């Protein structure tokens, strides 16, 4: 299993001060310790809509770091293309995919087409008109464009949020994919991503009891692999990527509590690596969006918005090294 992280300081509409690139270089190098490491980044399509909380045009100029950094030292770029127009706009979306591939296709190792289209909440793709067409038409379109440019090595997929029982479930989403012939969609997938935040937005059971962070993590992975993906004609040979996973440290939570959650989630995912065919784990995120905010999105980072490492940074670093040693012995 590979490991990675989102290095920026944005979560939803929250964003810390401008990135400190030397700090990011140093912290990511410490996490990777000379091993291959995946860097997750995001670009957004708003159509004709304005997004006052985000300068989307700048995302096509530069990501968090300079271009060359994403392919140096064994790093690989996992680029997410998010679909957020106010009205359905398939033509504009496909044209935007062209733009993104023109700009970043030579850097990317993974290209994620849409962000959590099963999750119908504001600022997430699942709430956007036409998102199902954006997903099912966008995947084969992006594959064809990349292949035409000789980028057969770029892996293409999409992500879903963890089982949304508390929102009434996402059965309608999977029923839609079940109705799309395999040759038109599933056959073009190289992976399916899963976003996991078991204790970020809802209370969880005490550690070691049913409904705790570890059991919720295992449930989400197995729910996706055993129930959802077969409905969408996705074979068991197509790997799962844990594309976002995190736990907040802000009040009433603590930094020690965040460390314990991060440890429990990652250890559970590593245990499921073989049986669930998990190929990649990416933590969200390196840096807090706003360490002083009481909102969970503000404190998901391994370091504060001023780049002070929390105890979870050491936990993640050590778990990556532990997993690497285990893989070497096998």
TrEMBL record:
<dbReference type="InterPro" id="IPR017853">
    <property type="entry name" value="GH"/>
</dbReference>
<protein>
    <recommendedName>
        <fullName>Beta-glucosidase</fullName>
    </recommendedName>
</protein>
């Amino acid at each position: 299993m590979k490991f990675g992280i989102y290095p920026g300081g944005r979560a939803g509409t929250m964003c810390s001060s401008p990135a400190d690139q030397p700090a990011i270089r140093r912290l990511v190098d410490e996490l990777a310790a000379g091993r291959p490491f995946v860097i997750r980044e995001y670009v957004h399509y708003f159509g004709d809509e304005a997004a006052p909380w985000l300068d989307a045009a700048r995302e096509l100029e530069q990501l968090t770091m300079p271009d060359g950094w994403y392919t140096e030292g064994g790093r690989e770029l996992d680029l997410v293309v998010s679909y957020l127009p106010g009205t359905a706009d398939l033509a504009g979306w496909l044209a935007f995919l062209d733009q993104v591939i023109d700009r970043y296709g030579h850097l990317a190792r993974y290209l994620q087409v849409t962000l959590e289209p099963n999750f119908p909440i504001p600022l997430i793709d699942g709430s956007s008109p036409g998102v199902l067409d954006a997903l099912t038409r966008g995947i084969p379109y992006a594959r064809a464009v990349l292949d035409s440019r000789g980028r057969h090595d770029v892996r293409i997929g999409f992500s879903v949020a963890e089982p949304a029982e508390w929102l009434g479930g996402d059965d309608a989403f999977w029923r839609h994919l079940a109705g799309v012939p395999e040759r038109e969609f599933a056959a073009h997938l190289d992976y399916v991503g899963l976003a996991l935040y078991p204790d970020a937005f809802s209370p969880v059971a005490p550690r070691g009891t049913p409904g705790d962070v570890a059991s919720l993590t295992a449930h989400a992975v197995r729910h996706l692999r055993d129930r959802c993906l077969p409905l969408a004609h996705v074979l068991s040979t197509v790997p799962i990527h844990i594309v976002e996973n995190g736990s907040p440290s802000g009040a009433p939570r603590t930094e020690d509590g965040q460390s314990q959650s991060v440890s429990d989630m990652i250890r559970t995912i590593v245990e499921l690596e073989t049986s669930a065919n998990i190929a990649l784990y990416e933590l969200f995120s390196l840096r807090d969006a706003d360490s002083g905010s009481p909102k969970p999105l503000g404190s998901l980072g391994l370091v504060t918005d001023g780049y002070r490492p929390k105890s979870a940074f050491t936990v993640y670093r050590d778990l990556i090294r532990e997993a690497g040693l285990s893989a070497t012995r096998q």
